[in-house]
Amino acid sequence: MSDRQMQIGEVAERTGLSLRTIRHYEDVGLVVPSARSKGGFRLYTEADVERLMVVRRMKPLDFSLEEMRDLLEITDRISATDDPPSGDELARLRERLDSYRKVADARCETLRAQLMAAEDFAATLRRRLSAGS
Predict the structure, then answer these.
(1) What is this structure's pTM?
(2) How far is 69 from 84, CA to CA, in rounded Å?
(3) Under 8 Å CB-to-CB from 7, ≥6 apart: which residues?
(4) Over the stretch 2-14, which tens digit does the pLDDT of each residue have?
(5) CA gap 123, 105 in Å, rounded
(6) Closest by CA position to 31, among listed 65, 2, 64
């Protein structure tokens, strides 16, 4: 992983998030820039971009900000190298992570069903339009 630092504009371009959204995620504590330039500009690392992408992927599945924060805390703790979790703590963290996976899977299935219904409706409209020609 690179230690290269990026300004917020590049991060916005890479993540597809607006500057305002990235600043909001900072304000609510989901993603904190790794550093600030001498001029006070936010500086982000590749790890910060990956964190923003996790948040971005959770959003369409209707996870709340609190759930996003909780999931990020779980993944941070699991990947901690200075004081790695072990034993019971690691098992509890993995169990919590798996519960988020199950919720995500269920929400994806709901979205798939909604998409199928929407595609069926669009096909019905196309058939009606072509029948009227």
Answers:
(1) 0.81
(2) 19
(3) 37, 41, 42, 43, 44
(4) 578 999 999 999 9
(5) 27
(6) 65
